[in-house]
Design goal:
Radius of gyration: 18 Å
CATH class: Alpha Beta
CATH superfamily: P-loop containing nucleotide triphosphate hydrolases
Distance between the termini: 17 Å
CATH architecture: 3-Layer(aba) Sandwich
Order of helices and strands: EEEHEEHEHHHEHEHEE
Strand order of the largest sheet: 6-7-8-3-9-10
Number of strands: 10
Number of domains: 1
């Protein structure tokens, strides 16, 4: 196995007037290709900040991040946008599905974004079908988001995140807005994606039951990793 995500001495300080709030205090983390890692910790421990930095959405105050061999902290905004498009799939609590598009339409839009808006690109219909079968959505292809349950919508968001074979999926409390039954369904699907496709997943959560689905649990407190 090879390291697909690495952070070196990450620090993040948010400025509030003359006051500096330390969100990260020297975070060092390595994730192997094909791992499913859960990052746990109480609210305010820095786990969301860490996820946003490794996803190229925030620039750290200091430190270095490598994603699939690319050092991303020195990239320009345009270069980071390109890296996110090519290498990273995001799953957030806010699903941001396009309400006027069907399930298939949302996936095809993700494919078009991956191919930089090229209109004639058909994407990969077989992969779409394969992923939707795995996620139990094969009969929802022509449904719009408002015709789906909350759990089904979250599974569509997962399908959208993995449709273009990202190097890594970053999941931010993916079951935070779901009931216990749908939470278990979504977590099992993430586990299955990791097992069947070897998809690398980094998930942040405060829920021990969710974290237990991962292959490895990393604990954070006060901006630091306290377990490897």
């Amino acid at each position: 196995m090879s390291v697909i995500l690495k952070t070196v001495d990450l620090h993040m300080i948010y400025r509030m007037g003359k006051i500096g709030v330390h969100a990260l205090r020297g975070v060092n983390l390595e994730v192997e290709r094909g791992e499913f890692v859960a990052i746990m910790g109480p609210s305010g421990c820095g786990k969301s900040t860490l996820l946003h930095i490794v996803g190229g959405l925030l620039t750290p105050t200091s430190g270095t991040v490598y994603v699939d061999g690319i050092e991303i902290t020195s990239l320009s905004d345009a270069e980071r946008t390109e890296l996110r498009r090519r290498k990273i799939g995001f799953v957030f609590q806010r699903l941001n599905l396009f309400p006027t598009l069907t399930v298939e339409g949302n996936l095809r839009l993700a494919e078009r974004i991956y191919y930089n808006g090229t209109r004639h690109v058909e994407g990969d219909p077989e992969r779409r079908r394969q992923i939707l079968r795995l996620l139990g959505l094969e009969d929802k292809l022509n449904h719009k988001p408002n015709e789906l349950s909350g759990g089904e919508q979250q599974r569509v968001a997962i399908a959208r995140a993995i449709i273009n074979r990202p190097a890594i999926i970053l999941a931010d409390e993916p079951t935070g807005s779901l009931d216990s039954e749908n939470s278990q369904i979504v977590l099992r699907m993430l586990k299955e994606l990791n097992a069947q496709f070897g998809q690398t997943i980094v998930m942040i959560t405060h829920n021990p039951e969710a974290a237990a689905m991962a292959n490895r649990i990393v604990h954070m407190r006060d901006g630091k990793i306290i377990t490897p």
